[in-house]
Amino acid sequence: MTQEAEPKSARVVVADDQTVVREGIVMLLGLLPGIEVVGAAGDGEEAVALVAGLAPDVVLMDLRMPRCDGVEATRRIRAEHPGTQVVVLTTFADDESLFPALAAGARGYLTKDAGGDEIVRTVHSVLSGDAGLSPGIQRRLLERLSEAERGPAAPSEPPDGLTAREMEVLLLIAEGLSNPEIARRLHVSTATVKTHINNLFTKTRLKDRAQAVRYAYAKGLVRPPAG
Predict the structure, then answer these.
(1) How many Å apart are CA 211 and CA 104, to the nearest integer?
(2) CA angle 203, 208, 214 (to 5 degrees)
(3) Distant-in-sequence, close-in-space partners of 209: CB < 8 Å, separation ≥ 6
(4) pTM score > 0.85 for this model?
(5) Between residues 153 and 174, which one has the greater pLDDT?
């Protein structure tokens, strides 16, 4: 019997300007399965340089750092090194820099008191193409977009050649539902949901769930909350 190869570890860089916090995170990551720490940075400039030299899979990025903050570092990394994903590290989930970081290309977020299981889950989630965003954060992101813009009237037919089922999946993503939750709502398998998401991302040229939320609002598929 052929023995299955163990899944490849995610290569991670940690960026945080507080030495104690940074070293603590590195130490914790070193104990987690499926995670390999390949570098640590004390500010955004150093993080960008490490990504250029090490090509990690994921950067865990603090937001408030000197010289170059986490938002600008995220923007540069995603523009210059699209193969590296960024997961934001925040002290509080309501950090005002969180939404600019998501707009800059971050695919997920973790609070600094996150447990090992949550870190592993989020890192591997962004690497598999999902956004590491809680439903609550996705809803808040939609609300922010609603406050900032006025969307056009809803189209009379699905945009970009989306099927009716792909539209359903898109709207459920915009509601903040995870793949398993969408599968239960539509009474289909999670694999089927992933297929629909891949198809709608291809048709709309979207890269992740955060972009899907923006797209749904911009196309008038989701209305801003009343009030």
Answers:
(1) 11
(2) 80
(3) 130, 131, 133, 138, 173
(4) no
(5) 174
